[in-house]
Amino acid sequence: MSDSRTWSPPFPLDLGAVLGPLRRGPGDPGFLVDGGVWLTANTPAGPGTLHVRRADAVEARAWGDGGRWLLDGLPALLGAADDDSAFECHHPLVADMRRRHPGIRLTATGRVWDALLPAVLEQKVTVVEAHRSYRELCLRFGTPAPGPVEGLRVPPTPRAVLGITDWEWHRAGVDGARRRALVAAAQVAHRLEGAFELGGEAGRALLRKVPGIGGWTAAEVAQRAWGDPDAVSFGDFHLAGTVGWALLGRRIDDDGMAEVLAPYAPQRHRAVRYIRVAGVRKPRFGPRFSPRDYRAM
């Protein structure tokens, strides 16, 4: 059984750009692009699968116990709760990207745990390592997604994470620090969902109460779970360099990034989205960091 809904957004909508941050690598078993977008989720009502496609309007269909919940959240997922009316561009590049990409809005999934799990896995490792671990955990400890698509998986629930043994963490390539953070978060996951209701800095502060969850991880969750327009991922290995080369033509650190983004507060993350879509890359001055495989240690 499935439910469906049609929704006409009252603003320009770039479906791929809005939902793209929810994808955790090309092998994400909970995200599939086939002319539309397939998403899986743990919701308060249970697991669900959502398919969204853009025609004259947005056409959505959902399956599973969480299907109705996902359909109810469709407008917010596609940026309807995102208010960018007060955003001011303070740099020609940002102004140009805002003009050229009017369909970029900030998604709000309403699901803290589903954003937190992959964010913790991305702490202090390469993207390749993090995506590999996330895929492994979804395939082994997630559940088959409801609906017609074979191979889609719903991410592991907090209860499933608490049942993962040390050997299974090792097999998935997850080191001790990240597994301890995930276990600590899973133990209080029901409380952490309250970060969505708090929003903003208060929501990020609630997440940071969990040992092993710092500012970077909290920002990554806030960007996706409630579309926080000011949640900058300070501590990211590449972000300060990207912002520096895009806006100043030189390398800067996190302190420099805080200074150059200060005029955009309280919408600094929105400015970063426009900077990233510009595709500016900092020059490479050394060999690429090699992924580690904890499974061989």
UniProtKB/TrEMBL annotation:
Q: Name one GO cellular component term.
A: protein-DNA complex
Under the heading Gene3D superfamilies, the entry gives: Hypothetical protein, domain 2 (1.10.340.30)
What are the protein's GO molecular function terms?
alkylated DNA binding; DNA-3-methyladenine glycosylase activity; DNA-7-methylguanine glycosylase activity
Keyword DNA damage applies: yes
Q: Name one GO biological process term.
A: DNA alkylation repair
Q: Which UniProt keywords apply?
A: DNA damage, DNA repair
The answer to whether keyword Disulfide bond applies is no
In terms of PANTHER family, this protein maps to: DNA GLYCOSYLASE, DNA-3-METHYLADENINE GLYCOSYLASE
The protein, known as: DNA-3-methyladenine glycosylase 2 family protein
The organism named in the record is Saccharothrix syringae (Nocardiopsis syringae)
The taxonomy runs:
Bacteria, Bacillati, Actinomycetota, Actinomycetes, Pseudonocardiales
